[in-house]
Amino acid sequence: MGAEAATGTDATKRPTRDNGVVGLGAAGAAVTAATVLTNGLAYLVPMLGARQLSAPDLGALATVLALGAIAAVPGFGLQIAVAAHRARWGPSGALRLALGTAAFTAGVTLAAAPVLAAALRLPIALTLLLAPTTFATVLAGCWLGELQGDQRFLRLSAAMIGLAAGRYGGLIVGLALGWGPVGSLILGTLAGFLVLPVLAWLAASTVGGPASGGRGTGTSVGDTRNRRLTGSQVMTASAATLAMLVISYADLILARQLLPATGSGGYAVGSVLTKGALWAPQVVTLLVLPRLAWGDRRARALALGLIVSSGVVLVVASAVLGELAFRLVGGADYLHLAGEAPLFAATGALYAVVFMLVNDRVATGARWPAAPLWVATASLVAAALLVAPRTVGGVLSCALVTAAVTAAVMTWLAFRPTRG
């Protein structure tokens, strides 16, 4: 099926002007600033915790926050699904589905709390707090998706900042006040709930109603109302998000299992370059997703070009400044790995391409959009366990080859000729 047919719209029915949509330059700057601030607040939590908490308490809080990031995956899937659906069909009445998704995810997290507490030697109070925290984070994905799908990117950036202030601001204040892990997480959870009405207001409040920029106008109001977002669409997007998370961390986990302590530590330092090259161009994917939902091939090609260009720049920079990068991230003890810096960066850059193309397949309603990623993850694990030398270079080579092959497969799926 062609890209135009997949979206249910055609180019002649699309407006040539995006009403109420800010210029992409300003949008990109705003969303980039919001992303930088969000990441800055996220990094501030462990930095402050290292100064305020004992080592056991810091380890417990860091573990719970990592579990929270995993539990929040349905929230990212919900955002992608809502954004793509809203861009294609307009308002979808997704709030009830979002509440159900958030409640189900929180319920699973609550049921798992005693098991996680026992298996990971965590205070039960911390694992129980994961449930309300997860509920608020997942539910927020609904309003973020509405703003993204409507291309109201300045409001989206404000919502992202508000969500980050809620998720991390309460934690930061609690840690600064010396409330410990449990008290800080309680404050962070309360702040996360308090920001939800602000997100709802940002998504609903706009002059002249929701932006319609770019959506196909050939669908009648009655048809639009019947095209409601379904749970299967949210599950598909969530599974794709989970696959992206798993494959991006698989090599780091394998390094932890297969390498000696010094090698694992060195790989962890190098993986900072991987994550930097992976996440640096993600603002492009966020901005282009509504156009991907329309089946806009030109936008897809332009986005891919921008992401590839970003990757090339980062790989070259890491080749030139690899020693400086390792010195800043890990210190002098890891300078012997500076020659591997371009390989770490190249792995992240290739995964950035993969992630954009996975989002493209989710947005256009492709079946099993993340299947290549699960196959790639299994292949990476098999190669690392059975073939690769037990060295930093061995694990890294497996990760780089996996990323390159996966990027090639996803590119072929995106640009292969369609049958007439």
TrEMBL record:
Domain of life (superkingdom): Bacteria
Ion transport in keyword set: no
Membrane-spanning residues: 21-46, 58-82, 94-116, 122-144, 156-179, 185-204, 234-255, 267-289, 301-321, 341-358, 370-388, 394-415
Keywords annotated in UniProt: Membrane, Transmembrane, Transmembrane helix
Listed name of the protein: Membrane protein involved in the export of O-antigen and teichoic acid
Organism of origin: Micromonospora jinlongensis
Lineage: Bacteria, Bacillati, Actinomycetota, Actinomycetes, Micromonosporales
